[in-house]
Structure formats: C-alpha cells, structure tokens
Design goal:
566 residues, alpha/beta, eight-stranded mixed sheet, eight-stranded parallel barrel, 23 helices, disordered C terminus, binds phosphoenolpyruvate, binds magnesium ion, metal-binding, cytoplasm
C-alpha cells in the first residue's frame, strides 16, 4: 500500500528506486563485548595495545579513503579519522582497559561518555554523535574480527535509508548507484546533508517511520518537498522523475536573458551585498544587480566609512557588472540591520521606527556622503547606477530623495515596502524614475507580522493575496506612467510566484543569484497571457495556499515548487 512520509527537505531533486539499509552494526551485548568478566591484570597491557592498534588501523583506513576523495567527502573522512585518534576519547577508553574492562567494552563506554557531553552541548556538536558512534562501530568491529560496518555497494541504483549516516559511510558513495539519501534522524547541517549536497542527490532527513520500510521496497524521494513515498504507483513515480529531469535540464541550460515564452522581456537580476558577492553573482545567468544592500557591507563598522572607503566598495560592484544595470540601495539601517555608526534611538518598535531612509531625518549628512560616494564610484567606473531609498512611506519623502540623487546626475528610485507607498503608487512614481517592491517588508507591514517570527511564517508568506493586490496596484501605476516596477524581495526567487508577479505587470525580478536560473527557466515556459491569467486567478483567492493552487492550475505543474537543489 502506498504511504507518504515527510521530513526535512535538504537537497532538492526526485529519485525512485529500491530501499537499501546499511550493513549491521556490531552486537553490543555484554557477551559480544567480552565485558562479563574482568581482564586479568597481567593481560591488561596487551589489551591496551590491542585497543590502540585497532583505533590506529581504523584511523589509517579512513585517512587513506580521505586521500582518494576530494572536497567535502575528503574533509569529512579526515575529520572522522581524527576522531578515531582523539586523545580524549582514546585516553578515556585506555583508562578503562587499564582498570580491567575489555577493549571493545571500553570503546563503547568511552563513546557513551563523550556522546552524552556532545548531546548536552546541542547544535552542531550533537550532530557529531553519529560520527563518534561510527568510529566506535569500526573500532569494535576491528577488535572483534568482524567485517567493516557500513554501506554495501548496491547492484542496482538504490535509495539509501538509515537512522543516521556516518560520514565515513556517505563519503565513499557513488551517485550512480546511491540515488537518494533518507535518514530518520539528523538535521540540515549533518554530514549526511553535506555529502548529499556534494553528490547532488536528493536528500530528506528527520523522517519518522522510516524503520518500517523493508530492503527492496520501491520508494520515491522528493528532496524538494521533503517527501518519501513508499511503494508508489511505478508509472506515476517514473513520470515524476522524468518531469524533474526535464525541469533540471532546462534550469541547468538556461543562460538568459529573461523573457517569457512569447518574448516579453523581464530582466532577471541579482541581490548582492558587496564586491565579493557581486563577483560571485556573475557566475549566474543574471543581467545585472537589482538590489545592492549597501548596509550589509558596513554592518561590522563602529565608525562611518569615509566617502573614499565607500566609493571603493561601490566601485567593486560596478566593475563586476560593468556595462550592466546596477541598482544601489542607500543604507537600510535599523530594525533587523542596526548600524553601529548610526546612533539608533531606543525604540519600542524598531521595525516601525527610525530605519531605512528615515535615518536622514536626524543624519542627513550620512545620506549625503553616501550619495557622494556612489556618484564618485560611478564617475570612476563610467557607470550610471540607479539609486533607490528603502522604507519610503510618502510621495514627499520620495521627492526629497529623488532631488538629492538627481543633483548628482544619477537615476532616482525608491523601494515600495510600506503599504502606504503602494496605495499612493501613482503619486510616488510621479516623483521618481523607477520603483522596486521589497516584498519581504511589504508583506511584514501588510500582514502586521514580524518577518523574523517563525511562528508567524504563514502570515509572512509572500503569496498572501493582500500583498499581491498591493503589487498589482504598484505595477498598474508603473504601466500608466511607463516607468519600471521591479521586485527585489524573496518573492522574486519563487519561480511560480515570479510568473504571477510578471502577470501583475512587474518588469524585473531580483533575488539571490542561485535562484536566477530556475526563475528564468520557468518564465521562458509560459506566455505573458498565461502569467496574467495566473495572476488574476491568484488575486481572486483569499489565502496563500489557494493563491498557489490557483496559479499552478493556470501555469501547469512545470514551474510549481521549483527550488534550486542544495
Ligand atoms: C524587502 O524588504 O523585500 C527587501 C528587499 O529589503 P530587505 O530584505 O533588505 O529588508
Ligand atoms: Mg526591506
């Protein structure tokens, strides 16, 4: 009977194959470990020697495998080898052997002591308990003359299931035969996840109920949705795998520029934070920078950077995208991004306080110096950046900002992140050359729900129809005035939502560069009319799930839920 289990999605992708479980771990009964009787005093030195040799053999074997691997696999194997030689662990086991405990039982007891400490520390340390248990299993198997525990090499491409996979198990895996990883335990930062990412195979962790799946049972793993379908309909499962492969190939092959299937241009841009992230973004198929979050380049600074210092950083970004569009946002200081050199007043509600462009109320000179630096970098690189202000709430604020930008012969715009700005979009747009909608804050302020609150994530969903209505109003105003309306919040990273935004009239999409290919490929699959129909369908709903479903029904399943793997 088909059954669907769910867990934490770690690496996207879809795979279908028979289940495989790793080899049996050593028997830890007192009899098997030889802990029912004390080691006589005259044999304890030999037993200490036996333990030391077994630990050294295991460490050498792992180091050897590390040298045959590269990247994360090599690092993981080397780290596990180091655990087998860890002075604390080896010392604790040795002390027990010196007191008469058998070497295998001492390895088990020392591991228990250390695992308890790691678990108490929580987080990353707790996730290392699996590594330690793996070292114990290998050393005990060596001491008992058993075959090395771990993952067998499957004869057919298989889905590897486990309670948790030890790094040494996963590091040697071949993605041709191990096509997905699913574990009952583990978190998104566990070694299983790291290795799955490197191998590029779908991975889901923390899946309850996994133990009931027998070896050989066919399973479908959807690493994007975090789903494990046990004994699915074979034809349907194959179809999901094929559809995913088609989609992945299209994403991998998408090189831009952004346009719909019927050729309507929609620039696909990158969000960056400094020179390094801008240079990294050029490896993706982006046409420019839609949001340069300048405050992120200065978060650690106690003093305001000089105009020259600032210009040097802006130059790096302009150089990385020479000849291409770059939208610079002036400092969005305050609330979730406090800057030490702008003395933020003590506020009861910082998200509703003196943040973003409002810092110019008390410190107009900070904004002036930043605009001077942007203009200087533009002169030095021969670029003409677009410059926008964050957190604009009124046409008067937009006009005041635009005047300062135009005085430096730069292109002036503002972000639409406050519902008031969306409602008065025609008046705001009349003052500037372009706007960019920050859907992260626009959603937060529309829904009166803190974007940082995990408890309120259903409210801060950018598919909220109320938010889509505000985007529609801004895009309509932009169209009427013939001025660009971009989106630079996380909404622009969701391929299906990106199609809806374009249908609402948005003219460019900017997001994390890694999302660009999936967004561009999805857009290339649909016509503008399909986008408009999907937008109308989403606007007719009253909750995010219904909006998603309505858009998917129009767009087809192709762009639905596409997320970048890893
Ligand atoms: C936004 O609010 O959507 C946005 C792009 O700005 P930030 O995430 O930096 O607040
Ligand atoms: Mg914002």
């Amino acid at each position: 009977m088909t059954q669907t289990l769910t867990g934490t999605p770690v690496v996207g992708g879809v795979a279908y194959g028979p289940a495989l479980w790793p080899g049996v771990r050593p028997d830890y009964s007192a009899e098997a470990l030889g802990s029912t009787s004390e080691v006589p005093e005259d044999r304890r030195a030999d037993e200490v020697e036996r333990f030391a040799r077994a630990a050294a053999v295991v460490a050498a074997r792992l180091r050897d495998r590390a040298s045959q691997n590269t990247g994360a696999a090599a690092e993981v194997l080397a780290a596990t080898a180091a655990l087998a030689e860890d002075r604390g662990w080896v010392g604790a086991a040795t002390k027990l052997v010196e007191k008469g405990v058998s070497a295998p039982a001492a390895a088990a007891a020392a591991t228990e002591q250390f695992a308890a400490v790691f678990s108490r520390m929580g987080g990353l340390m707790a996730e290392r308990v699996t590594d330690l248990n793996d070292v114990r299993d290998r050393v005990v198997a060596e001491l008992l003359g058993l075959p090395e525990p771990g993952v067998p090499t499957p004869d057919v491409p298989s889905v590897l299931l486990a309670d948790d996979l030890a790094p040494a198990d996963t590091a040697g895996l071949d993605p041709a035969t191990t096509i997905a990883l699913v574990t009952r335990l583990g978190g998104p930062t566990s070694h299983t996840a790291i290795i799955a990412r490197q191998l590029g195979i779908p991975c889901v962790v923390a899946v309850p109920g996994l133990g009931a799946i027998d070896v050989g049972t066919p399973v479908l793993v959807d690493g994007t949705a975090g789903e494990v379908v046990v004994a699915p309909d074979a034809a349907e499962a194959q179809e999901r795998v094929t559809a995913h492969r088609r989609r992945a190939a299209r994403i991998a092959g998408w090189t831009g520029p952004g346009r719909t299937a019927d050729g309507v241009e929609v620039a696909v841009l990158a969000n960056v934070a400094d020179g390094a992230s801008a240079r990294a973004a050029t490896a993706h198929p982006v046409e420019g920078v839609g949001l340069f979050r300048t405050e992120l380049a200065f978060l650690g600074r106690a003093d305001e950077p000089s105009v020259d210092d600032q210009a040097a950083i802006y130059r790096e970004v302009f150089d990385a995208f020479a000849g291409r569009k770059v939208v610079v946002r002036t400092l969005d200081a305050g609330s979730d991004k406090p800057l030490r050199f702008v003395d933020h007043p003590d506020e009861a509600n910082p998200a509703l306080g003196v943040r973003g462009d409002r810092i110019a109320l008390a410190h107009p000179e900070v904004r002036e110096r930043q605009l001077d630096a942007i203009a200087q970098a533009a002169r030095e690189t021969g670029s003409r950046p677009w410059v926008m202000a964050p957190m604009i709430a009124s046409p008067a604020e937009a006009a005041a900002f635009a005047a300062r930008v135009r005085a430096r012969d730069l292109v002036a715009g503002v972000m639409v992140e406050v519902p008031a700005a969306a409602i008065l979009a025609p008046a705001i747009l009349a003052e500037v050359d372009f706007v960019s909608i920050g859907t992260n804050d626009l959603t937060q302020y529309t829904m009166a729900a803190d974007r940082m609150s995990a408890d309120l994530s259903a409210l801060t969903d950018p598919w909220q129809p109320a938010v889509l209505h505000l985007v529609a109003a801004v895009a309509k105003a932009g169209r009427a005035l013939g001025k660009p309306v971009g989106v630079c919040g996380e909404a622009a990273a969701d391929p299906a939502l990106a199609c809806v935004l374009v249908g609402l009239g948005v003219t460019s999409l900017s997001s994390a560069p890694a999302a660009s290919a999936a967004v561009g490929a999805a857009l290339g699959e649909v016509t503008l009319t399909a986008c408009e129909n999907a937008a109308a369908a989403a606007l007719a709903t009253t909750d995010p799930a219904a909006a998603r479903a309505a858009a998917a029904a129009v767009l087809g399943s192709e762009p639905e839920g596409v997320r970048s793997a890893g």
